[in-house]
Write a structure and sequence with these properties.
Keywords: Amino-acid biosynthesis, Histidine biosynthesis, Hydrolase, Methionine biosynthesis, Multifunctional enzyme, NADP, One-carbon metabolism, Oxidoreductase, Purine biosynthesis. This is Bifunctional protein FolD. It catalyses: (6R)-5,10-methylene-5,6,7,8-tetrahydrofolate + NADP(+) = (6R)-5,10-methenyltetrahydrofolate + NADPH; (6R)-5,10-methenyltetrahydrofolate + H2O = (6R)-10-formyltetrahydrofolate + H(+). With about 300 residues, this protein is an alpha/beta fold. The protein has two domains: about 90 residues, Leucine Dehydrogenase, chain A, domain 1 (Rossmann fold); about 130 residues, 3-Layer(aba) Sandwich (Rossmann fold). Helix content is about 40%, strand content about 15%. Bound molecules: 5,10-Methenyltetrahydrofolate. 5,10-Methenyltetrahydrofolate binds next to helix 2, strand 4 and helix 10.
Length: about 300
């Protein structure tokens, strides 16, 4: 039986609807709007697309949405100055500095200079540490792993006791926080990566596979346990000569055509984890605004 397709676009719209409702309630109660500042340095084409999508979604959710686009020759000190200004701006509850930053800018320094209370990407060491120790009440969880968890929740519920999860990839942005979230939800977690001895055999143990390595079509159908849930975090642009010269298409880290024959449930690319990332950015910003207003934290579990 072919796999259930997990509709990330639909689920992301459900999250965004809830954000929008909660933003308007905040506005009625306090006269304030959640404020999101997105900072783009340079003219990377893919980054421009993503940043535009974030700025637009924030406006759709009824936020105060600002985009700062800086030239590629911006200095690290100039960027740090902008971050300081946004840290001090009471109308801004979330700051996102789009990665990657141009060569010559110390990205870790810039990211760590964002105030932890406005770090809606969840990259500040304070947020990383809180997620690491399972202290979620005041943590911003990175948007991609948080979105992936909500999709997993649609299939397995919130308690993953007794299930084996294999995360392929150990990045600070996805793999490591993903593993922490899965552990917090009682899964038995393996983090595999390029130095893992038997990657196919390791993945075959998984009831839940999260692929986040940035290698197009790495995970094959015969790597999967039949019925497994497959969450494909990869967003790879590959040449698509069938669409014309110099045309590209997006593919995940999973060979979808093969995997869909074996998996129980699978996320597509596009239309899977990507849209969830953007909606969870809105959710984090909303939560930040509620916190600043002294209101109780809203939850974003996607009950069916
Ligand atoms: N500080 C920072 N925070 C980020 O969260 C961040 C970042 N830097 N740098 C780049 C990556 C990438 N990222 C994506 C978000 C949404 C889609 C997304 O919505 N993708 C659509 C397709 C979009 C398209 O067609 O290109 C989909 O998968 O359906 C993709 C990629 C956030 N990132």
């Amino acid at each position: 039986m072919p796999a259930t397709v997990i509709d990330g676009k639909l689920q992301s719209e459900r999250v965004a609807e809830r954000v929008k409702t909660l933003a308007s309630e905040l506005n009625l109660q306090t006269g304030k709007k959640p404020g999101l500042a997105v900072v783009l340095v340079g003219d990377d084409a893919a980054s421009q697309v993503y940043v535009g999508a974030k700025t637009r979604k924030a406006a759709e959710c009824g936020f105060h949405s600002v985009q700062h686009t800086l030239p590629s020759d911006t200095t690290e000190d100039q960027l740090a100055e902008l971050v300081d200004q946004l840290n001090a701006d009471p109308t801004i509850h979330g700051i996102l500095v789009q990665l990657p930053l141009p060569d010559g800018i110390n990205a870790p320094r810039i990211i760590q200079s964002i105030s932890a209370e406005k770090d809606v990407d969840g990259f500040h060491f304070l947020n990383v540490g809180m997620v690491g120790v399972g202290e979620f009440a005041n943590a911003f969880v990175p948007c991609t792993p948080a979105g992936a968890m909500l999709l997993i929740e649609q299939i397995h519920g919130r308690d993953l006791s007794g299930l084996n999860a294999v995360v392929v990839g150990r990045s600070n942005i996805v793999g490591k926080p993903m593993a922490n979230l899965l552990i917090a939800h009682n899964a038995t977690v393996t983090v595999a990566h390029s130095r893992t001895k038997d990657l196919p055999g390791t993945v075959r143990q998984a009831d839940i596979v999260v692929a986040a390595v940035g290698r197009p079509h790495l995970v094959k159908g015969d790597w999967l346990k039949p019925g497994a849930t497959v969450i494909d975090v990869g967003i790879n642009r590959v040449p698509a000569p069938d669409k014309g010269e110099n045309k590209f298409r997006l593919v995940g880290d999973v060979d979808y055509a093969e995997a869909a024959q074996v998996a129980g449930a699978i996320t597509p690319v596009p239309g899977g984890v990507g849209p969830m990332t953007i909606s969870l950015l809105m959710a984090n910003t909303l939560v930040s605004a509620y916190r600043e207003a002294g209101l109780p934290k809203p939850s974003f579990s996607l009950d069916k």
